[in-house]
Amino acid sequence: MNDAMSYAEIQAIVDEDFAIMDKQVFGSLNSKVQLVMSVSKHVIDAGGKRMRPLITLLTARMLQDIQSEQAMQLAAITEMLHTATLVHDDVIDASGLRRGKPTANATWDNATAVLVGDYLIARSFNLLVGFNNLPLLKLFSDGTCDIAEGEVLQLQHQHNPEACEADYMQIIDGKTSRLFMMATKGAALLQGRDELLDDLGAFAYHFGNAFQIIDDVLDFSGDMVIMGKNLGDDLAEGKPTLPIIKTLEFLKNSASDDYDKLRIAVQTGKVDDAAVLIDLVRQSGAIEYCKNQALEQTRLAQEALARLPDNRYRDGLYQLTKLASSRLS
């Protein structure tokens, strides 16, 4: 495989497809209600790197190296769904900023943001029907249910110091990995390549897991400016992330009162001594444990990828896994 590539270099592999898809994300909305269009444009323009649609485009080209109108449309739908989940997340977390820009709920209000998020999901399915492909529609409808269940499960375990690693894996399977799986398997279904669904699903599942674990590790060891949020935000929100779960597990039988300090912080969301609590997580061995789990999930993703057609598009997907895990160093 080539030396490590930047995100821009990976995107450049499908640059023309990506540029067309990017315009389609907003161009496909088509609402008669001006407020829907204004809020949708606000949240789509604030969008991030468009990793999920990039994965769809790379997968489609890996399987057949032609420019596919359907693949670009599916990639745009994938981003639309992702955007909807972010809008809903911001309402749940009462976030005022995302990637340094005001959120929809802060710019308008919660009710408007929720309803526009609902519209983005409804419009995605409206567009999916146009493919006239029942297996594809089933993949996305099942997957969207799983995403919603993952979010509800996270809410159910919020401020719960008894949440365990199995709970966490179930949550991230829904809230993160599932959309990666839809992004890859959807491209295969468009081409009738059912024989590749298992390997594509395994790649996306493990890559999604690694991606989320890395994100959660960086909440305790990352760069605040790059991340666009304060360290320890997950702790303040009482989110049951793997670093917190493992720290509690490691501290439970210690002689000190550190376990109770962290347990109470998770239960109450009161993190006045955030620096002390972050240090507890860093010193406990949980970060190393989580890094190893992320690297193992990355290895499993790369292993699945090796069973797929070997070309520069597959190398692009491989480079995405390397880029994600490089954030740990």
Automatic annotation (TrEMBL):
Q: Which InterPro entries does the record associate with it?
A: Isoprenoid_synthase_dom_sf, Polyprenyl_synt, Polyprenyl_synt_CS
Q: Which UniProt keywords apply?
A: Magnesium, Metal-binding, Transferase
The domain of life is Bacteria
Q: Which cofactor does it need?
A: Mg(2+)
Q: Which SUPFAM superfamilies does the protein's record reference? A: Terpenoid synthases
Q: Which Gene Ontology MF annotations are present?
A: all-trans-octaprenyl-diphosphate synthase activity; metal ion binding
Which EC number(s) does UniProt give?
Answer: 2.5.1.90
The answer to keyword Metal-binding applying to this record is: yes
Is the Metal-binding keyword given for this protein? yes
Query: A single Pfam family, by name?
Result: polyprenyl_synt
| Gene Ontology BP annotations | isoprenoid biosynthetic process
Q: Which family does it belong to?
A: Belongs to the FPP/GGPP synthase family.
Q: Name it.
A: Octaprenyl-diphosphate synthase
Q: What's the encoding gene here? A: ispB
